[in-house]
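Help! Submission page says 'invalid entity' but I think these are all valid:
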Amino acid sequence: MLGLGVLLLVLAGTLLGGIQFSDAEPTPKLALDLEGGTQLILTPRTTDGSSIGDEDINQAISIIRQRVDASGVAEAEITRQGQQNIVVGLPGQPDQATLDLVRQSAQMRFRPVLIQGEPGAITPDIARAIQQQQAGEEVTPIDPDAPAPTRQEVEEAAFLVADSNGDGTLSTEPAATPAHNSDMSWISEQLEYEYWALDCTDPANLAGGDTYDPAKPAVACSTEGTAKYVLGPTELEGTDLDGATSGPKLTPTGAVTNQFIVNLDFDSDGAAKFLDVTTRIAQLGTPQNQFAIVLDGLVVSAPSVNAPIPGGQAFIEGPNFTRDNTATLANQLSFGSLPLNFVVQSEEQISATLGIEQLERGILAGLIGLGLVVVYMLFQYHALGFVALASLTVAALLSYLTIAVLSWTTGYRLSLAGVAGLIVAIGVTADSFIVYFERIRDEVREGRRLKDAVDYGWVRARRTILASDAVNFLAAVVLYFLAVGGVRGFAFTLGLTTIMDLVVVFLFTHPVMQLLIKTEFFGQGKRFSGLDPEQLGASSATYRGRGRFGPPRGVEEVRVPHGKSTTPAAAHAAATPAAADASSPAEAGTEPGEVAGEGGDAVARKKKAKEERTPVPAAEGAFAGMSIAERRAAQRELEKAEAEVARMEGDA
Amino acid sequence: MMFSFARWGNELYSGEKSYDIVGRRRLWFLIATVGVVLSFLILLLKGMNLGIEFRGGTEFTVSNAATTSSLPATEVLSDAGVSDIRTAVVGGSSLRIQTEALDAERVEALRGELATAYGVDAGEITSTFVGPAWGADVTTKALQGLLIFLVLVTIVMSIYFRSWRMSVAAVVALLHDLAITVGAYALIGFEVTPASVIGFLTILGYSLYDTVVVFDKVRENAAGVTEQHDHTYAEAANLAVNQTLVRSINTSVVGVLPVAAILFVGAFLLGAGTLKDIALALFVGMLVSTISSIFLATPLEVVLRQREESIREHTADIHARRAAGGPVIELTTDRKGRTVRTAAVPVSASSGDVPDPDEVEAADAEAVARSVGRTNVVAGGHKGTAAQPKRKKRSKR
C-alpha cells in the first residue's frame, strides 16, 4: 500500500513538475490518427538523370523508416504515393532536427577499415586496463558484473584513453601526415575519443545520416549495431558502382552451388579506383584488409580482401549469406549506387485521419465496458466486487499517469489502437482478481478460516498470476523490439498494462484484502461479503469427538451457521468430500509465502498418500450430528438405494 | 432455487459434479480439426479482404475547396459504393481523401462528382495511387516477431511447468486459436487493417495466458499422481479443468465485456474503423482461447503425457486395480438423475511444507469422518491410526 502510494506520488509529482517547469502536458500526446501532424512529400531524384526503379523507392522508404523509428518518433506513417513520391506523416509538430533527418539524402561510400571493435561504449574499467597495458603494467581483470557506467563516466573514460599525450585537450589533426587512406596515423585524438564514446548498442545511434566529410576519416556503427568501426577517408563513392546483384555462387566450371553471393559491378572509373584500393589493403592485416560499405552513415557490410581485384567485377561471400540477406544487401548496394537526393515537394500540416470523435467514442466504449465488468463482478463476488472496482480504478489512474509521463519524456504517442489496447486491459487486469478471489474461495471450500484463506489463496494465486503475466509480457517485449510502426505502439501499451496489473495486484489488491479480512463483515464471511463459507460450501465438519461433528471451520467461532444446518446449502456444504488437500495442513505450519525445505516435502507426501487412500463417503454431510453407528446404518441404506437405481438403469 | 454460480463452483471443485472433458477428447479434437480446416478453406476460397494499408489505394486531393468538411466526400463516395474512406485536411485549405483502389474510369467519374459536391473546378481535384503504409517489410518483421515469440515462450513454459509436453500443448492450442480467429474474421468479411493484425497478435498473449492458468491447476492436481492408486493422470487433469471452469467462464466474460462494448460502439455508432476491426478480432479470439484452453489444450496435454512411460504404467495399473477390486471412483446417478462422482479425490500439489500438528489432527479427524460408514475399501489402503477417532483439543479449537 505504502509502495503504491509512493509510486503514485512520484508519477504525479514528475508530471506536475514537468508541467510547471518544462513542457509536459497533463494529457498524453496523441498519434497521427487522432491528432494530425506534419506531412512531408518527398521525391527521390537522381542528379545524373538515371532512372529510379521500384526497388529503389522501397529501399528509400525503409531507410527513412529506420531513421524515423530510431529517432524515437512514435507512430509515424510512411507510404508511397504514385510512382515516385514518398509520403511521411509525423505526429504533432516535429522539431527541425527530425525534419532534417527525414529530408537528408542517403549516400553510399566505400571507406577502408582502420579499427573494428565491440559495439558497446568504453567503461572506466576498460579504460584502466588499456592504460595499464600501454604502461606495460599488469592488467587488472575487468569485473563483468560492474554496474553500467553513466554517460559522463563513459565520456571521461574515453577522454582519458584518447588524450594520448596527456595535454588535457583533444587534437583534431592527425599526429603525422598519413601516407595513404589506410594509414593508422589518420586517427587523431578527437577521432579516437569519438570511437571510444560511441555506443552502437543504443538504438538512437543507429538512425543513420552521414555527417562526416568524405575526405576525412569517420567512425560508424554497423546497421544492426553489432560492431563499430574507425574508417579512413572515402575511396569510392556509391556512384562509382554500376549495380549489384545477388545469386548462387558458381563454380569455375559454371555449376551452381548452394552458397549465395553478392556481385558488384563497378564502372570504368570505379574499377580503376577499386583495383588501387584492393591492391593496397590486400597486403595489410586484419581489420585493415577490410573495406566498409557505408550507406547513410551505417556500415552495411565490411568484406575483407585477400588479393587485388582488377576489372571492376567483384563478389562478396560470407558464411551466413542466405538468399534473403544477399538480396537485401544487393538492393542496398544498388540503391546506394544511385546519386539520390530527396526533393521535398510539400511540407504541410495535416488533420487527424480519424479525429477526436473516434477517441471520444472509444472512451465511451471503455466506460461501458468498465461498467459491465463491475456489474458482473458484483454479481459474482458480491462485496468483493468493490475491491475489484477499487483495484481497477487504481490501475486506470496508474496507467494514465505513466502514459502521460512517458509521452513527455520519451515521445510516446497514443493511437486509437493503443486506446483499444487499454480497454482490453480492463479485462486482463480483472482476470488477476478473479484468479485471486477464486483461489481464496477454494481455500474456504477446503475448510480454512477466512483469514488464512486470504493468505494461502494469495500464495497460490501469486504464482499463477506471475506466470501468466510473464507470458503476456514476453509477447509485448518481442513485438516491441521486432515490429515497427503501429504494432510497436500497441506492444508498448500491452507491456505497460501487464506491469500495471502486477503492481496493482501486489501493492493494492492483496494488502486491501488483508485489511478487509480483519473487519467483521469480511472476516466472518457475512452474507453478501462474497466469502460466505456457507454459500461456498465450506466443507469438512469438524470432528468433536465421541462420533459428533461440529460446524465447518470456515467461520471464526464455533457456531451453527445461521442455525439452519438442514438447509440445502448446509447439507450440500457438508457434502463436499474435502479430500483434505495435503498441502493445507502442511502449509499451515509455515509462514505464508515461505517455501519450506525438502524435508517437509517427504512428510507432506507421505501424509497425502495416506489420505488419498482414504475413500470418501458420498454425502457425508447428510449425516452430520449422527453417531458413528447411525452414520454406518444410514450409509448402508443409501448405498443399497443407489445400487437399486443402478440396477434399474442397467435393466433399462 | 435459482441457478447459483457459487454453488455450481462448489460442486465442480469438490468433484461432486464433473464434466468428463478429458474423456471425450476425440470429439473435441475432431471439432478443433474441422474448425481449423474450415478456416483454411475460407482463407483459400474467400480470401482476406485486405485494407488500403496493405494493398494501397486511390487518393483524391481537393484543393481550394469552399469547405474542408469531410461530409460531402463521404456521402458521394458511400453512394458510389466505395469503401474504406479516410479523409484529412492538409495545409488548411485542401482535403485529402483516401479510398480503396479504384480503376481509372471510376476515378474519373468520382472526380466529377466530388467537384460538384465541393463546388470547385474538376481541375482542382487531383488523384493518384497511394502505396501500402503497411509494406511487406512490416509484415516480415511482424512474422519474425511471431516466430521468435513462439520459440521463446515454448522455452519459458517448459521451464516453468518442467514439462515440454505442456508447452507443446499450449502452443498447439495457440495456433488453433489463431487459425480459427483469422478464419472467422475472413468469413465475416471485415477489412483487414493494421488494427485487426494488432488484434490477432493480442490473441497470442491472451490464449497462452488462459492456458497457463488452467495448466497451473493441472500441474498442481497431478503432482505425485503416480504415488497413489485412486485415479489416473487423465482423471486428475479432468478434475483440474472442472475446478477452473468457473474461473474460465468469469475470465472470458470479464475479458469479452469491454471488447463487446467496443464492438458495439464501433459497429453501430461509428460504422467503421479501427475500433471495430480490433474488437472483432479480439472478440472471436478471446472466446476461442477460453474454449480451447479447456477442451483442446488440456486433453492434448493428457494425450501427450500418456506417452510417458511412468504415466502409462500408472494408468494401466489403476485400470487393473479397478477391474480386480471394484471401482474406487464410481460414476453414479443421484436422485435428480444427474451424473455424480461419488468418491472423487481431488489431489493437490504439496511441495515442501511442514505439517502443523493442529492441522494434522484436524485432517485426521476429517479422514475419519470420511472413512466412516464406507464399506468400499481401496486395495492396499490400510488406514492404520487414521482409522481411530481422535479427540479434538478444546483449547486449540
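Support: the input was valid. A stray whitespace character was the problem, and the output above is from the cleaned input. Confidence is low (pLDDT under 50) at residues 326-381 of chain B.
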